[in-house]
Amino acid sequence: MKFSSALSRFGSLTLASWLLASSAALAFKPSNVSTRPNYRRSGGTRDPIPGCIANPEAGQSLTALVPETTSLTTAAYPDLQWFLPENSASYLEFKLYQITSDEDLMPVYQVAHALSGEGGIATLSIPQNLGIAPLQMGTTYYWSVEVYCEVGNEQADMSVFGYVERVEANTALQAQMDAARTAVEQAEIAAEIGLWHDAATLLTSNLDSPSALAAWQDLLGAVELDDVAEEPLL
After folding, report:
1. Best CA proximity match to 97, nearest among 1, 162, 179
2. What phi-psi label fits residue 24: left (phi over 0), alpha (psi between -120 and 50 degrees) or beta?
């Protein structure tokens, strides 16, 4: 598959040359595994900012924290993230589907969450203890977040969606990750070969570190999500 060639190219680098390059700002290089476009920002004519956003003049709305096209992970149960500004919305629904060979959507997981009104970046970890099968290698999944301002709405007031695919970590990649000294260095390796969710999870799990915080902001900036790069984690 196309992704394996990217791993092979990275595996040919020496650790010393990578450590020298890593002194620069974190860079994210999307893979060409898939060209499915993500719908990252709720808003505009399709989905105007609703009245339950506390400060609509700021122009912020529901935002999926992913690159412009299909995001990649090596995780069987990846973390998925989005930003929601301060709001008075009632609840949100998260849905995950497997895309079949016939391009149909097969339900995998769905959950609803009440909202506190607090703005920030939310992380949903796909649970491992509910009988949910791990993401299959080389299979594309569709996920969505829909926000409802009021209970009883038939249509979501805000929505975003994205595509995620699980790929295999080869031995060269694993060796590089094992040799990395910090979570930030591991995240830089992941970002360099397009593993969006691996990099994001490594960084957001260590934001008490100034270097991880700076790298997280770099990661979001690399995919033109600078406007939410300094938002707090919920």
Report:
1. 162
2. beta
- Specify burial of residue 90 (Cβ count, 10 A radius: 0-12, 13-18, 19+): middle
Residue type, 165: E
As a whole number of angstroms, the longest Cα–Cα distance in the chain is 58
Residues in Cβ contact with 22 at an 8 Å cutoff, skipping those fewer than 6 apart = 185, 188
Closest CA to 216 of 18, 22, 25, 15: 25
Reading phi first (left if > 0) and then psi (alpha if -120 to 50, else beta), residue 161 is in beta
Q: What residues are paired with 120 via a beta bridge?
A: 84
- In the DSSP assignment, the letter for residue 71 is E
As a whole number of angstroms, the distance between CA 127 and CA 149 comes to 26
3-state DSSP assignment of residue 177: helix
DSSP string, 134-174: PPPBT-EEEEEEEEESSTT-SS-SEEEEEEEEE----HHHH
Q: Kindly report, residue by residue over 25-84, the tens digit of the pLDDT.
A: 788 988 766 679 999 999 754 567 788 999 988 989 999 999 999 999 999 999 999 999
* Tokens 């790298």, located at residue: 215
Say if residue 170's pLDDT is above 80: yes
The whole-model pTM stands at 0.86
* Whole-Å CA distances, 193 to 133, 169, 183, 213: 26, 11, 16, 20
Question: Are residues 147 and 157 in contact, defined by beta-carbon separation less than 8 angstroms?
Answer: yes
Q: For residue 179, give the amino acid letter.
A: A
